[in-house]
Amino acid sequence: MDTRSKTSKTMVNPEKCSQPTPGKSPNLRITDKSKVPLDGPVESLSRSVNTLKNNLDEMRTDLYAEENGLSVQLRHVSEQAECNYDDISLLRSENAQLRRELDLLRSVIIRMDRRMETMDNEITDLRDRSMRDNILIHNFPYTPKEDLSTTIPDLIKQTLGVDVNFIRIHRNGVRPQNSDRPVTITAKLTDRSKKDEILSAQKVKKIAKVSLPFYITPQQPPSLVSARNKLFDKSDSLKKQNINVKISRNNIIMPNGSKYREEVPLLTNADVLQIDPSKTEKLDEIVTKSAEPIKKNGSEFYAIGSKVNSGESVMNFYQKVCIDPYVASVDSRILVYRFEERGKVTENYHDDGEHGAGRRLLKYMRDNQIVNAAFIVTRWMGEHIGPQRFTIMESLVNEVANQILDE
């Protein structure tokens, strides 16, 4: 094969090659070296170092700037924290001092409440002593221009066969226009022993079912009368439960010879102040219902109630209501309750100075067959309104009872 001829065909003609012009470069373009990007590792590292330096300078500026640098702000925070610590320490000290003063005031109030109770008992005893020569004559009709100092001794002699004389005798005020009941008569005997003779003779007549034109009772302070009525009410209630009890020296004696103790004792302000604070949180869980207060001649009546099923639940409800500031400041807190436990109905009340109210409200609960409920009726004392107060209290209990029983 002739390779030579083929080679000659592919060779370039030297005459056709352009010769370089003197002073001119070939087709290769040469640019400004300063404008060529340096993408080598050294240049990249240099740029990174510069960036880090700039960032570090910015951080230094943020840290150590005189006006709003981080170090200045940290110093302000430290100073504020120190001031707050001083304030907290001062508040703790003041709080401890206030707690000591509060404990002292609580102790003083408890002491005052106990002393007031002692004084009330002493005043009641003095009133009772001052009334030991007195009798009350009820249901004796009023006659115009009556002479009680003559009429009553003669009438007692005729009906009871007892000779009596009085130091003083008078009616206790004027008969109300809306009542036909005669005003009670108070009489002070010259001879104290005649009082027992009169009461004994009256008892004999009552047993014999002899009608008398009057009814005579010894005069006593209302608190003693109320306590005595409550004693007999509780005795009757226990007897209805087939518990054979008897009354001896203002106490109920149980069949085993022990004294009866109330399921829920009366709470005084001293007792309320000594309730454990941890217990008050549990008392807040008790669900209660209440009625809007009723105002009458300066008196304000309010009622609150709850469902109960034991003496403990009544006591918890009683404590919950008594720690309320409004209830703690009222003149009277009347408690009345009835609940059924193991087939027996337990019932009782506390008048708390509103004599006769608890007895009346308990009767209202019996008549309306209200059971497993407890109520507290409070009263801010205003003017004397007589028996109307009982009607108001009953209406409040009725309203609250409907709310409780409808649940």
Automatic annotation (TrEMBL):
Upper taxonomic lineage: Eukaryota, Metazoa, Spiralia, Lophotrochozoa, Mollusca
Name used for this protein in its record: Uncharacterized protein LOC111115830
One GO cellular component, as annotated: cytoplasm
Pfam entry (one): Impact_N
Originating gene: LOC111115830
Highest taxon of the lineage: Eukaryota
Coiled coil: 88-129
KW Cell inner membrane (keyword) present: no
Signal sequence extent: none
Biological processes per GO annotation: GCN2-mediated signaling; regulation of translational initiation
Organism: Crassostrea virginica (Eastern oyster)
Region (Disordered) location: 1-35
Listed Polar residues bias regions: 8-24
Family named by the database record: Belongs to the IMPACT family.
Keywords on record: Coiled coil
Family annotation (SUPFAM superfamilies): Ribosomal protein S5 domain 2-like
Impact N-terminal domain residues: 298-399
